[in-house]
């Protein structure tokens, strides 16, 4: 979704460090202490594909929040274990929504895959997915009347509608992953006007809310993007914490 009107929002506080997968369980315990360990929210999830062994959980206290917590987990021996127990994230200026629509600045709830290709204005930071370095005339088509709605497109002219000139959004699109809302494999084909361009990307300069995406500070974002492994069939879950049992 278009982010032009959201670039000057108010900044938020510090971001937790990224932990490495190799010491996931121990790091979670050592950082938080046995009395204040975060709840293992991945254990509540019931609809993940059986082949999924990596999951990102983005949750907040209610639908109206614009500040969320992003946690990463991996499944080892059938048990979900923390990789990172908590990173501060921003979501849509209108919070979470169960009813997304084009132009609504809210983050769609649900379970989504990570797109096969990651993108960025900067060079590949070392991700395991395919990576496309953004150049001039790279767009995300957000025109509901277009046959290529909610897809990447290289074109010398704008695809129209809310379409984003990806090369112009710096620092947001320094690096980003596609959250497959309203696109395959979540749906067979994008539904016109249902919403588009939902990404996991870097904070804006002011670290304010987004137009529906999930944003992180640079270092945590790069850590998550490097960790994601297409062979693990990763999923991202977006929801107020009280509704995670739906997923």
UniProtKB/TrEMBL annotation:
Keywords of this entry: Signal
Entry keyword annotation includes Signal: yes
Signal peptide stretch: 1-27
Source organism (scientific name): Micromonospora zhanjiangensis
Name of the molecule in the record: L,D-transpeptidase
Domain of life: Bacteria
Residue ranges of every copy of the L,D-TPase catalytic domain listed in the record: 71-232
The UniProt record lists the keyword tRNA processing: no
InterPro entries: LD_TPept_cat_dom (IPR005490), TAT_signal (IPR006311)
